[in-house]
Amino acid sequence: MDMARLGLDAQAVVAERLTRLARGDLAAGIEASLMMSEKALAISEVNARLATAAATGRLDTVGADIVRLYGRKVRANRTRLRC
Q1: Per-residue pLDDT tens digits for 38-82
Q2: Nearest-5° angle of CA 82, CA 63, CA 15?
Q3: CA dihedral in degrees (51, 48, 78, 7; nearest 10)?
Q4: Which domain of life is it from (predicted)?
């Protein structure tokens, strides 16, 4: 269920971001910068969770944890972009 919601929310975020980026104005540039920094931060968080899971032997649950992590981030972006 978390994966399905993540997929739907991600599609909405992509659509809104593409709309904003297509304008090519200052807000589009700010959104592009924000998007890139968020992605860099997210991948570092995922790497940390994977390393922790590997070190503690909990690789069986890390996938669901990462989906929840991305889900929270995508929902926050969706809420921010709606404004």
Answers
A1: 999 999 999 999 999 999 999 999 999 999 999 999 999 999 999
A2: 25
A3: -10
A4: Bacteria
